[in-house]
Amino acid sequence: MDAASLLIGLLVGALLATAVTLGVVALVSRRRPGEEGLEPVHESLDHLHRLLAGMERARATAHGELREQMGTVGQTSSLLRQETAALVTALRTPHVRGRWGEVQLRRVVEVAGLLEHCDFVEQPSATNDAGAGVRPDLVVTLADGRQVVVDAKVPFTGYIEAVQAEDVAVRAERVTAHARQLRAHVDALAARRYPTAFRPAAPFTVLFVPSDGFLITALEAEPGLLEYGFARDIVLATPSTLLALLRTVAYSWRQERLARDADQVLEVGRRLHARLTTLSGHLTRLGSALSSATARYNETVGSYESSVLVAARRFDDLGVAESPVPVPAQLEATVRPLRPADQPAVGSAGPAEERDGTHG
């Protein structure tokens, strides 16, 4: 219910209430003639007048606001109609239509997480096996080095005309024309032989349709359009299906990088193991040298005690020397051999003895 209908209902209700009030007052005035009987009538009429004046002001305000809102809606509708007509006119232009498809393709690639100049290249130039120059919109590089060619130049003039058509027969005719245009573009794309221009390349070309509605409408008129493209190595892909394809490519690149990192880690591990082997050899030879030096030292100390100190003690006995000659002590420590931690040596000392330094 709008504001005008509500105000009319309130006005009718007020009039009925006034009529009832006047009838009651008339009955009362018959019983009580004079000025005192007409005073309530004046008060009721004044109150009704104020009420009607307020309702009129409210109605005028609501009517003005409604008129203003309707004017705004009309202006917005007119502006939207103009913008829509300008957009349709622009999309009828081939280069504008192609640019819009390229922008849509770029957004899909960015959402898929691919990196420019690493995972894909935009509009590269090449020459096919027939010697003709080709320039697709996108070339995606797979993890194995192969390339997938993507073309986004799709005609959809018939689709726009079908959407604008008000007659059912005209719409069906334009939908058929749209499917026919898309089929002809499949033939033209197959004739460019993109896979031969980018080697190594996948044996098919992706025909990017910028909107799912374009392909769905074409399939209404020609359900076998997808199979027609497959037979000519053309894959028709909408933003949703192309996004799934590019996500798979991005995932394969991540797996390839992980595998490459794993190979590098393995190579570093091999080098570290070889160096540890060399260091273990050095430590083993050093331990052998220390053990041999300890044995030679003890032998020297024994010879010193048995042959030299005996004669030196004679000086002490004769009281010639000021102080006795010190006796060097023998070394009892042994060199600890290299062995795995889970294979303790037989007869090895416990942790307390090792901490005391009684073992090497």
Give an account of the 3D structure.
With about 350 residues, this protein is α/β, with parallel strands linked by helices. The protein is about 70% helix and about 10% strand. The chain is built from 10 helices and 7 strands. It has helices at about 5-30, 35-90, 95-110, 155-165, 170-190, 195, 210-220, 225-230, 240-320, 350-355; strands at about 120, 125, 135, 140, 145-150, 200-210, 235. The strands form 2 sheets. The protein has a 5-stranded mixed sheet with strand order 1-4-5-6-7. It has a two-stranded antiparallel ribbon with strand order 2-3. Strand 4 and strand 5 form a beta hairpin. The protein is elongated, with a radius of gyration of 51 Å.
How helix-rich are the residues, as a percent range? 55-70%
Q: How many helical stretches?
A: 10
Tell me the span between the first and last alpha carbons. Answer: 102 Å
Order of helices and strands: HHHEEEEEHHHEHHEHH
Strand residue percentage = 5-15%
**Cα-atom radius of gyration:** 51 Å
Number of strands: 7
**Low-confidence parts:** 347-360
How confident is the prediction overall: mean pLDDT? 77
Side by side, the strands of the main sheet go: 1-4-5-6-7
Tell me the structural class: alpha/beta
Biggest sheet details: 5 strands, mixed
In one word, what is the shape?
Answer: elongated
Describe the structure concisely for a colleague.
The chain is an alpha/beta fold and 360 residues long. Helix content is 68%, strand content 8%.
